[in-house]
Amino acid sequence: MSTIGVLALQGAVREHIRSVKETGAQTLEIKRKEQLAEIDGLILPGGESTTMRRLIDGYDFFKAIQAFAKQGKPIFGTCAGLILMANEIEGQDHAHLGLMNMKVARNAFGRQVASFEANLDVTYVGNQFNAVFIRAPYILESGSDVEVLATYKDRAVAAKQGHYLATAFHPELTDDNRFIEYFAQMVEQSKQTLAS
Ligand SMILES: NC(=O)CC[C@H](N)C(=O)O
């Protein structure tokens, strides 16, 4: 059985822990970089990307997460986590972890409709997925190595690039566990591949 860690510096940590538990995978709140050695996949939760970046630096996680990624272990970023994974952020002169070949826009759906829900058809995951958006970003542009898994009003809101997965919405805030289950499968498969 694989173990999925949730970066527990800030944001929707408890909700992810609960949804990972429901998939049957083991889970761990990651508060120190040394704990990354104990997990097979990592979730970067929603929250506030600038704050989370400051904490990533403060707790010396930056290089450790990049090294974890280079080992081929899956990483799933939701909302602020998606922003952390992008290699370009609109209107900012620097990105954060730069793991995925995509340019993202923050708070892209505007202040009037800061939060909303939509039913999306998501490649690999299923149709009519109940997606919750909260001050959500979206993917403005992405490279040919990035597969867009879902769109909302023609905007890319979920993507996969090899062992990286990212959503603009919050799959941990609904009872619809199909997205987390898909990530848990990615983690289980990569665990077996990396072990063989
Ligand atoms: N719900 C969220 O994670 C919001 C993300 C937030 N808008 C940011 O820029 O970090």
From TrEMBL:
<protein>
    <recommendedName>
        <fullName>Pyridoxal 5'-phosphate synthase subunit PdxT</fullName>
        <ecNumber>4.3.3.6</ecNumber>
        <ecNumber>3.5.1.2</ecNumber>
    </recommendedName>
</protein>
<dbReference type="GO" id="GO:0006543">
    <property type="term" value="P:L-glutamine catabolic process"/>
</dbReference>
<dbReference type="GO" id="GO:0008614">
    <property type="term" value="P:pyridoxine metabolic process"/>
</dbReference>
<keyword id="KW-0456">Lyase</keyword>
<dbReference type="GO" id="GO:0005829">
    <property type="term" value="C:cytosol"/>
</dbReference>
<keyword id="KW-0808">Transferase</keyword>
<dbReference type="GO" id="GO:0016740">
    <property type="term" value="F:transferase activity"/>
</dbReference>
<dbReference type="GO" id="GO:0004359">
    <property type="term" value="F:glutaminase activity"/>
</dbReference>
<dbReference type="InterPro" id="IPR029062">
    <property type="entry name" value="Class_I_gatase-like"/>
</dbReference>
<dbReference type="InterPro" id="IPR002161">
    <property type="entry name" value="PdxT/SNO"/>
</dbReference>
<keyword id="KW-0378">Hydrolase</keyword>
<feature type="active site" description="Charge relay system">
    <location>
        <position position="170"/>
    </location>
</feature>
<keyword id="KW-0315">Glutamine amidotransferase</keyword>
<dbReference type="InterPro" id="IPR021196">
    <property type="entry name" value="PdxT/SNO_CS"/>
</dbReference>
<comment type="pathway">
    <text>Cofactor biosynthesis; pyridoxal 5'-phosphate biosynthesis.</text>
</comment>
<comment type="function">
    <text>Catalyzes the hydrolysis of glutamine to glutamate and ammonia as part of the biosynthesis of pyridoxal 5'-phosphate. The resulting ammonia molecule is channeled to the active site of PdxS.</text>
</comment>
<feature type="active site" description="Nucleophile">
    <location>
        <position position="79"/>
    </location>
</feature>
<feature type="binding site">
    <location>
        <position position="106"/>
    </location>
    <ligand>
        <name>L-glutamine</name>
    </ligand>
</feature>
<dbReference type="GO" id="GO:0036381">
    <property type="term" value="F:pyridoxal 5'-phosphate synthase (glutamine hydrolysing) activity"/>
</dbReference>
<dbReference type="GO" id="GO:0042823">
    <property type="term" value="P:pyridoxal phosphate biosynthetic process"/>
</dbReference>
<feature type="binding site">
    <location>
        <begin position="47"/>
        <end position="49"/>
    </location>
    <ligand>
        <name>L-glutamine</name>
    </ligand>
</feature>
<feature type="active site" description="Charge relay system">
    <location>
        <position position="172"/>
    </location>
</feature>
<dbReference type="Pfam" id="PF01174">
    <property type="entry name" value="SNO"/>
</dbReference>
<comment type="subunit">
    <text>In the presence of PdxS, forms a dodecamer of heterodimers. Only shows activity in the heterodimer.</text>
</comment>
<keyword id="KW-0663">Pyridoxal phosphate</keyword>
<feature type="binding site">
    <location>
        <begin position="134"/>
        <end position="135"/>
    </location>
    <ligand>
        <name>L-glutamine</name>
    </ligand>
</feature>
<comment type="similarity">
    <text>Belongs to the glutaminase PdxT/SNO family.</text>
</comment>
<dbReference type="GO" id="GO:1903600">
    <property type="term" value="C:glutaminase complex"/>
</dbReference>
